[in-house]
Amino acid sequence: MRKLLLSFFLVLSVAVSAQENGEYQFSSGACQLSVVGFVNRQLQTYPKSRLLDIYKSCFQDYMGAEHLVSDRQRVKAYLDEELNSTSLDDLMSWYYEPCGTDSCYFRISIRAIKEGIITEDQLLDAFIRSANVQTRPSVESWRERWNRMIGTIDQMKLDLPNYQDDKQFIDSVLSVGKYAISHSPEYRDAYHPHYRIVERNIFEKELLLQFREYQPSSDDLKK
């Protein structure tokens, strides 16, 4: 538990530091960052990230969930499997975090279900409605946006592993009209990502208050 609290306060301190340095401003409950500000936040919070992981957060922010959802039972079964096969020790300490530079979508950790802050049905409903938004941008518009972003990232001269290979792989995905990729193996091994993507307005109206009101019990603090 001591390690969990330390991790939580480390992530919190990164966010506070970024705000104090003017890297983002809160607007309607969300934060807006420059590309440089976002990349710095990503690498401070997840130092094992590769370019693939930076890209994934950015396309989630712009495009939303990776698939339209029509089979609720299948989505629920997959979420049930994750809940049953992971422990709190497997999960990062945060309950939610914004995606990309504009925070149009949020990642909601399944930790929030395990700790009783929200119910499985609440997250399932929010995820499905977010995934079925009818105004999804085109892949071509996302490709143009990413090309501008990667130009800035190139100028940062980051010492990321497999940077050029990752850059070429992303371009190959976009060149055939697709955009979704998986987290890098290094990211998965280090951080065990288990979350669902929720559109910002749904998150703010239906879930955020419950996170703000949550007060862990003494039993929770002993976990």
Determine the N-to-C terminus distance. 6 Å
The biggest beta sheet reads: 3 strands, antiparallel
CA radius of gyration is: 17 Å
Task: List the secondary-structure elements in sequence, H or E.
Answer: HEEHHHEEHHHHHEHHH
Estimated share of beta-strand residues:
5-15%
Shape: globular
Question: Number of DSSP strands?
Answer: 5
* Low-pLDDT windows of residues: 1-30
How are the strands of the largest sheet arranged?
3-4-5
Mean pLDDT: 85
The total count of helices amounts to 12
The class by helix and strand makeup works out as mainly alpha
State the helicity in percent bands.
Answer: 55-70%
Description of the structure:
The chain is mostly helical. The protein is built from twelve helices and five strands. Helix content is 57%, strand content 9%. The chain has a three-stranded antiparallel β-sheet. Helix 1 runs antiparallel to helix 2. The radius of gyration is 17 Å and the shape is globular.
Would you kindly provide a brief summary of this structure?
This protein is mainly alpha-helical and 223 residues long. Helix content is 57%, strand content 9%.
List keywords for this structure.
single chain, 223 residues, mainly alpha, three-stranded antiparallel beta sheet, two-stranded antiparallel ribbon, 57% helix, 9% strand, disordered N terminus
